[in-house]
Amino acid sequence: MERAQCLELLYPELQDKLVVTIMGACAQELYDLGHRESFFYLQHAMGLASSIGLGLALHLPEERVVVLDGDGSVLMNLGTLTTLARYRPRNLLHIIFDNESLLSTGGFDSQTTSGITDLAAIARGAGIQHVVTAGTLMEFGEAALEALERDDLSVIVAKVDAVGPDLYGMDLQLPENAFRFRRHILDRKQA
After folding, report:
1. Domains of the chain
2. Is 130 strand, coil or helix?
């Protein structure tokens, strides 16, 4: 299964969610589906999407927050899983696309390539109760829908192929994206 397929399947469900993506291929593929003001593409900050998502979920408990992450990013910030488990925001879904590769930073193998490092097991070991590994598009879709309906912290580790978009290039730079994302949140709070 490819991450782009997962994102295409998930995209309609993101209509009213705050979404934070990690840099690189994941951000580009979501952007290519159609930018929404509720999407924040965390460029040049590998490992921090889950931390930003946690802050949003805790500060905005009435909003549903979805973090789209990668295996390399999570491996750079494994402490995020213990922090997520400690605070257990009921409005956060953390999706980790595990392509066993640092695709966006050169395509090197990640620690999950060997089969020794299991991110779902690490999430469970950190204390997160709702953790699912999805290896097919159907498994991913079912897990995502269940997690979005659940009133609790959820983690999905989606095992995807190490392929990315043909072209990279968003015409939305980080400062503008951050400003528009913040404005979107403020507008929703006032509505």
Report:
1. 3-190 (3.40.50.970)
2. strand
Q: What is the pLDDT of residues 126-176, one digit of tens each?
A: 999 999 999 999 999 999 999 999 999 999 999 998 887 777 788 888 899
DSSP string for residues in 156-189? EEEE--S---S----S--HHHHHHHHHHHHHHHH
pLDDT tens digits for 21-63? 998 889 999 999 999 999 999 877 788 999 999 999 999 999 9
Beta bridge partners of 134: 158
- On the 0-12 / 13-18 / 19+ scale of CB atoms within 10 A, 163 is middle
| Alpha carbon 90 to chain centroid, angstroms | 16
